[in-house]
Specification:
The protein is mostly helical. The protein is built from 22 helices and two strands.
Length: 533
């Protein structure tokens, strides 16, 4: 008896005309470059600001504009794929991303660069969910794990390599080349996609059915989501810089985001043809996978931001050296992904791999919380490798489990929503840890200051040693220098303790979502069809 979806349609897989792996590699190329662009420009901001006669604070809009456009485009990708055809939508996104990348490299002012980054973010926002939906429809369930492994390489490895590659290009050539490198890859992807990518029969049938009906566009949902997500992304990206709710700008945008998104959720749940199908969250596998990936990417991106900062701020590493500490994790992740895909192909329950991945991430995060500033680079590389291996271990099965019980005709909508959840997890995770890092540093500084008193023998001894540097006969200057050095040392120690607190927070966050995985339905594919449970 054939397995059918919620609409009563057979859930068989249409056999593509080309080898599925050719299709997978073709669509992964552009996605890799798009994810790379979320982090590659970070290290070039000083160079961009200098060449554009702008302040470094103003140059951060190069990052914010891309993230805002990306967040707005993500939830709309599923709806647009169904409306105009997934292949056409995907190729449009690749073309827009490639063209705007070239324009970013040629920008003559900061205003132009920000505008072109918005276009680049819009084009890039549709690539991830489109690729995921293409892979889900191209591969049968028992081989989908390997397909998601290829996708995982782009999602997990690109942010790790981004800062290192961006720093190297900027130092040896020009910041403009961090955008120009997208052009040949985008052109190749566009050429190959036109040949090998095709829409599955069910999607063609959906489009044919829509042609015979009046065009129904969810203008209200579209406007509310664009307004709410755009405001929310600016809040997360600029909050710490603007002192959060001490800034009227942040307070206003927060109010706009809360009101717009609240109304959007109500509207999308009630509207018969929503642009973002939130009803998919009724499937508990999809819901719990969304929560887990939200937290997991908050941890992964938070760690990706904090570790280079710690290395450069506290340990005196250059940007290149910090990148070299981060980069080996990407290499090991590439080796890991095919192994995980094979395990899922052998009918292993995805839930146990997800739990194992979360436990490994938690263990590596606890390991990182025990580090000192005297460790060698190799002692920093291995915890990061283990943490990234844990993230890779849960990435493939969580993407497999999330789609197992989703109706075939909802693949586009599910992919857009799932990638939006992941994207927001990354943004919120970075915003939270950046804020908590400063708050915890203040807490530790106050605590340490309470122990630096004339009655504390070690503090008195340290002050005397540091004051002696002022030279004989210059007691006042020596004491001032000693107090300054002691205060600097206290700040340094407080910030170190704060970084270690964040790694412990990552560990606890990874452990807290494990019970949700146990509540999921069994996630195993059998014989090319879903196992009914």
């Amino acid at each position: 008896m054939a397995i059918v979806d919620a609409a009563g349609q057979p859930r068989g897989i249409a056999v593509p005309r080309f080898n599925p792996w050719i299709i997978a590699l073709t669509v992964t190329m552009a996605t890799f470059m798009e994810v790379l662009d979320t982090s590659i420009a970070n290290v070039a901001l000083k160079h961009i600001a200098g060449s554009m006669a702008a302040s470094e604070d103003e140059s951060t809009w190069v990052l914010t504009s891309y993230l805002v456009a990306n967040a707005i485009a993500l939830p709309m990708s599923g709806w647009l794929s169904t409306l105009i055809g997934r292949k056409r939508f995907y190729m449009t996104c690749v073309a827009l991303f490639t063209l705007s990348s070239a324009l970013c490299g040629m920008a003559g002012s900061l205003g132009q660069l920000v505008f072109f980054r918005v276009l680049q973010g819009i084009g890039g926002g549709g690539l991830q969910p489109s690729e995921q939906a293409i892979l889900v429809d191209t591969f049968p369930p028992q081989k989908r794990g390997m397909a998601m492994a290829v996708y995982g390489m782009a999602i997990l490895v690109a942010p790790i390599l981004g800062p290192t590659l961006g720093g190297w290009i900027t130092d040896n050539y020009s910041w403009r080349w961090i955008f120009y490198i997208n052009v040949p890859v985008g052109c190749l992807s566009l050429f190959l996609s036109n040949i090998v990518v095709e829409d599955p029969p069910y999607l063609k049938a959906q489009r044919a059915a829509l042609r015979g009906k009046p065009l129904q566009i969810d203008y209200i949902g579209l406007g509310l989501l664009a307004l709410g997500l755009g405001a929310l992304e600016v809040v997360f990206d600029k909050g710490q810089q603007e002192d959060w709710f001490g800034s009227r700008f942040i307070v206003t945008l927060t109010a706009v985001a809360v009101v717009a998104l609240t109304i959007a959720v109500i509207w999308e749940l009630l509207y018969p043809h929503p642009i973002l199908n939130l009803r998919l969250l009724k499937d508990r596998n999809f819901l719990f996978c969304g929560i887990v990936i939200f937290c997991a990417f908050g941890v992964l991106y938070g760690s990706t931001v904090l570790l280079p900062q710690m290395l450069q701020t506290l340990m005196g590493y250059s940007a290149t050296m910090a990148g070299l500490v981060m980069s080996p994790a990407g290499f090991f992740t590439i080796l890991e992904m095919p192994i995980i895909g094979i395990l899922l192909g052998r009918k292993m329950d995805a839930r146990w791999l997800i739990i194992a991945g979360l436990l490994i991430v938690a263990t590596a995060s606890f390991w990182m919380s025990t580090l000192t500033l005297q460790v060698a680079p190799s002692q920093l590389i291995w915890p990061r490798i283990v943490q990234t291996l844990g993230a890779g271990l849960l990435w493939v099965p969580i993407n497999t489990a999330a789609y197992l019980y989703i109706p075939k005709e909802q693949t586009n909508n599910a992919s857009g929503l799932f990638n939006l959840i992941r994207n927001e997890g990354s943004s919120i995770g970075v915003a939270i840890v950046t804020t908590l890092l400063q708050r915890h540093a203040q807490f530790h500084q106050n605590w340490l200051a309470g122990h630096v008193t004339p009655l504390h023998p070690q503090a008195t001894s340290a002050l005397q040693q540091m004051s002696g540097i002022g030279g004989p006969g210059d007691t006042v200057t020596g004491m001032q220098q000693g107090l300054a050095r002691l205060y600097g040392l206290m700040q340094h120690e407080a910030l170190t303790l704060s970084y270690l607190d964040m790694y412990r927070l990552f560990a606890f966050a990874s452990l807290l979502v494990i019970p949700l995985v146990l509540l999921m339905r069994r996630s195993v594919a059998k014989g090319g069809e879903l196992a009914a449970h």
